[in-house]
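Problem: given the chain below (163 residues), write out its structure.
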Amino acid sequence: MLTARQEGVCTPGFCDCTFPNCIEVTNHKGLIPDLVKCRCGEDIEGNVRPWKWYPSEESDALISDRDIVFHPTFSQGTAIVRGDRPLKSGMVHFWEMRVITALAGTDVMFGIGTESVNLGQFKFHFVSALGTNAQSWGFSYSGKVQHCGEQLPYGPESSPRAV
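Solution.
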């Protein structure tokens, strides 16, 4: 059920670990696992981590195992990554993402799309890309969901360290 979110309410952080700020991430020359030591919750019994990211030249993203850095040097548009396998029908699927830095810009979205999603379509445009058409569904850090270009309020705004 869609409900309006409360202004100023953000999701709580998952843990109390210290995370790098945007400047530290920007100035870091290595891979994210070298910079972020927190892996809280990842080794809880029963957790499964089969997801891998499909490497693509179309998207401005640096992929290292489970970690992704969007726009590793500078941003000139919207970057999208795709998982390496399709979801199986008849099953319930969910995933957890952890954002380690402050969220800013036109939008930061998590979502799902068909194989028809063009990963490079918005490489030089700043847009809320997931959910712009019938090929994908997006959940924005602002707490809105989007599909077929329609945005609706859904939940609280995301904050750094939230899962």
